[in-house]
Amino acid sequence: MAAPETSTAAVPSLYTNNALRNAFGGVLSFFILLLIGVMAFSIRLFSVIKYESVIHEFDPYFNYRVTQFLAKNGIYEFWNWFDDRTWYPLGRVIGGTVYPGLTLTAGTIWWLLNSLNIPLSVETVCVFTAPIFSALASWATFLLTKEVKGTGAGLTAAALLAMVPSYISRSVAGSYDNEAVAIFALIFTFYLYIKTLNTGSLFYATLNSIAYFYMVCSWGGYTFIINLIPMHVLLCIVTGRFSSRLYIAYAPLVVLGTLLAALVPVVGFNAVMTSEHFASFLVFIILHVVAFVYYIKGILSPKMFKVAVTLVVSVGLAVCCAVIAVLIALVASSPTKGWSGRSLSLLDPTYASKYIPIIASVSEHQPPTWPSYFMDINVLAFLVPAGIVACFSPLSDSSSFVVLYIATSVYFSGVMVRLMLVFAPAACITSGIALSQSFDVFTRSIKFQLPGISSNTEVDAAETSSATAEAQNDAVKTEKSEETSKNRPSKKSKKKEKEEKPSTKAKAEKRLIALPLDSSVISLLLLILLGAFYVVHCVWAAAEAYSAPSIVLTSHSHDGLHVFDDFREAYAWLRHNTDVDDKVASWWDYGYQTTAMANRTVIVDNNTWNNTHIATVGTAMSSPEKAAWEIFHSLDVKYVLVVFGGLVGYPSDDINKFLWMVRIGGGVFPHIKEPDYLRDGQYRIDSQATPTMLNCLMYKLSYYRFVETDGKGFDRVRQTEIGKKYFKLTHFEEVFTTHHWMVRIYKLKPPKNRIRGKTKKSKSKTSSASSRAKRSGMGKKNPWH
Amino acid sequence: MGRASSKEDAGALFHSLRSAYAATPVNLKIIDLYVGFAIFTALIQVVYMAVVGSFPFNSFLSGVLSCVGTTVLAVCLRIQVNRENKEFKDLPPERAFADFVLCNLVLHLVIMNFLG
Q1: For this UniProt entry, which residues form the secretion signal (chain A) (predicted)?
Q2: CA–CA dist B33, B39 (Å, integer)
């Protein structure tokens, strides 16, 4: 890079040479960053190309509906919105229970574009919010890693984050969920914290608090920040790295951050009353004590300081114990020790399955399997340990923060697969550091060994000659590892070499290391090959694994592409063929989509805040027809919606989720017992199934008239013929079944006008004239019990 | 350690503390006075809450946290302006004061919003 400048100028001064090189480097890194942003945006567009610009999954539909409301009615209506179209008859206070960051961000972007007369629809803005913010997140990663280790590491980390599959999975175009903006807020907050720590400027501390406020607005995972930063401060204090910059970085953040967090209605007073925030207050107090001690130490002589210490210790210890005892008593008096259910399930992974089955039933809350690590971060799994070692030489405040971040996020990602997302930026930062360090060593070795290149060759020559003895040892080691690399996979030798590099660097201190030319060239090429594997995997994962909108399904067969658009077909039918005030009951998975697309009131939805209400619906689905009719009638339900995948082989249908309905219903209504639905501990729906199972509403609604499709009633998902094939529905009537039988909608039959006598009560639906005579003898008893 | 000697030590400690503190420059003492005033205000508010009850809890929180907040920011200013502090040698005190004012502005904006 510097060769043309030195050869053309007559007597180049060192200063202009360096300035030119710096300018060139600055422009180059600017364009690289631009390209990284474009790449981050484009790699997330596969679903838009393969399907269409549509909102994916379940949760994004709720966010989309809230954004529509915000766009139509303005921000004051949004803050005060009470939604009466979900959780009938309870309703939901949207203003106070939703994290507003994502909605407000998309709403602001929509409003801005529309005021500039660029008429994008709300849906388009919602679909493309996530890719835009992932580009911003990779730029934030660049800034963060630049603060830790320099520009080269920053660019590498940004490039890695733009493509890492774990982050792509939650931020494709169409995945309009909280994490789309929350990850950007997380990385940006960490960057501002590290910047304040490095510079000690109060201005950055203010910006840090504002960025933390944006994070609190966006995602419930903000508790990770407010626990990680105190942990880091404590680590710095304990390892003797206390400085006034640490005080300036942490203390304003706690005060301003708590206040700003309390401003968000969802958090409110939880910011000062729940255990998730106590760590920050505790470390706040500890920090002040330590700062005070350092101050006193600074103004006293050593002898006097010793006296002060003994005095304080004897008096203050008693006071401290009393205060701590009071605090512990307060916290221990609450049954969950002040923690919320979700946080407790993070600390104790078995908590949810024992006490809160709803949290345990969500698939995102399960622990990840080993292959999911290689799927989600791929090559970074090998580079992360090397990066951790590189952070230790030399250990600074910022690199200790990175090590702590990755250690805690690895633990949490092991508890819940959804938190792999928090682990991904840490992995990218450390891998970026490792990759950039190794590139540094190799390119430097090559540069010094090419004839007559650098301007300080004299100095380098002396140093390289003194280091040749070490270099010889290195050469022997690398040659040995190079030979074995021909036999073993290249990745293992890469790790060995990278671990040797930092250790030899530490030994050589200021002396430069020059490796033999051929080994550096080959290693460089192999590193580039490693990067190529990573890129290929990321693009494949983005295109094949993470771009499914899950509301539209496709399958390839010998006669072309089949598209299963049954969900939208069913919601459109509901929208056009029912009254606006009709209530629809279904399992809670489909609540958000029903309110957003079908615009009908639902009983339960994905927010799952009321366990009893969900258990009521679950009990209804598990009961026989008449009891289920009673329950639904008491909730004013008109239509029941079930998802059935038996005809086409769609595995996530309601029959597969049915056991969770039984468990959740049984948790609140004891007459529903799970063993009643299992034959010998096995869940079956064929002829060996239990009578309770064959008579329950879910079975009947799923398999009504199913035998008419192929004559035998073969369920493609369960791979058996169904048990009860010919039956009629007495209390429900089928009103709509979609093209592939994936969604089936039933209507509740209205209660009978004439009441039968107690002695002549029969199960038949055909009313006869003779029953009219017995009506007067009935009295006040409810005949439907 | 005997009672008498500890008393003497306490007296000597008090004296040395006093003399060391008297040697600090005047502008730092002014900041310390401000910090003391803010802490005193916070204590009054806590005592008032203990007497009267914490019903508009957000008002109590915003009142106490505004005092604590200005304390913290004043201490940060003191750190940055203190000429003995080697880390902030090349930070002009005007810049430190401007940062202090900005941070206070943000803090009090939030307080006014949260006060109810």
Answers
A1: none
A2: 10
pTM attached to this predicted model: 0.84
Q: Does any CB of chain B come closer than 8 Å to the CB of residue A267? A: no
* pLDDT, average across residues A68-74: 93
Residue A529: count other Cβ atoms within 10 Å of its Cβ. Answer: 13
pLDDT confidence of B86, banded at 50, 70, 90?
A: confident
β-strand partners of A746: A640, A734
CA–CA dist A735, A748 (Å, integer): 10
| Average pLDDT of the residues in A542-553 | 86
At residue A749, φ and ψ (nearest 5 deg) are: -75, 140
Task: Give the span between the Cα atoms of A414 and A495, in whole angstroms.
Answer: 23
Contact A256 B107 (CB under 8 A): yes
Provide residues of B within 8 Å CB-CB of chain A.
Answer: 1, 6, 9-10, 12-13, 16-17, 20-21, 24, 57-58, 61-62, 65, 68-69, 72-73, 75-77, 79-80, 85, 87-88, 91, 96, 99-100, 102-103, 106-107, 110-111, 113-114
Is B9 in Cβ contact with A259 (below 8 Å)? no
Asked whether A265 and A96 are in contact (CB, 8 A), the reply is yes
CA neighbor of A386 nearest in space, from A369, A409, A408, A403: A403
Q: Locate all alpha helices (DSSP H) within A416-489, ordered by sequence.
A: 420-449, 457-487
Q: What is the pLDDT of residues A633-650, one digit of tens each?
A: 999 999 999 999 888 888
- For A689-700, what is the mean pLDDT? 89
- B34 Cβ neighbours under 8 A, 6+ residues apart: B70, B74
Question: Cβ contact (<8 Å) for A248 and B87?
Answer: no
Average pLDDT over residues A154-163: 95
Residue A404 has pLDDT above 60, yes or no: yes
